[in-house]
Structure formats: structure tokens, C-alpha cells
Write a structure and sequence with these properties.
Number of strands: 5
CATH superfamily: Beta-grasp domain
Distance between the termini: 47 Å
Strand order of the largest sheet: 2-1-5-3-4
Shape: globular
Helix content: 10-25%
Oligomer: single chain
């Protein structure tokens, strides 16, 4: 059964990948890190990128399930 996932990119990552979102479908379980590699194959994920699934921060090894929304955020810096 196919798994459908929505991916959203925020702040500078939106400019880095050139869009604000993607929708992916695949057959096997994927981790958040694997989703980045599929959605943005020409760029490595920037160091310290944060990820959330359904608005909760998760590790990059977190496996997604059908209907999840994954969001990628650049690291937060203080000043």
C-alpha cells in the first residue's frame, strides 16, 4: 500500500530547495532523513537541520507513516 507524505520547508531552507513543499508517494517505510534525500537529491541536508512530523520535533531516524506532514527547519540561532 503506498504511503503519501507532505513535506514543507521553512525559512532559508525554502530558498535552498527552491520551493516551499513537496508531496511524495512511496511503497516502503522511510525515515525523515531518507525523505530529504528523495525530495532534494542534489543537495545534502544542511548540518543541524531540525525536523518535525505532525508539528512535533523528531530525530532524523524517525520513520514516517501514511498521511504524515514532515517539516524541515534550519537551525535556530540566537543573537
Amino acid at each position: 500500500m503506498p504511503v503519501a507524505i507532505k513535506i514543507r520547508y521553512f525559512a532559508s531552507l525554502k530558498e535552498t530547495v527552491g520551493r516551499e513543499s513537496d508531496c511524495l508517494e512511496f511503497e516502503q517505510k522511510k525515515t525523515v532523513a531518507e525523505l530529504w534525500a528523495i525530495a532534494v537529491p542534489t543537495r545534502e541536508m544542511p548540518a543541524n537541520t531540525l525536523a518535525a512530523v505532525n508539528m512535533e520535533y523528531v530525530a532524523l531516524e524517525h520513520q514516517v507513516v501514511d498521511g504524515d506532514e514532515v517539516a524541515f527547519f534550519p537551525p535556530v540561532t540566537g543573537g
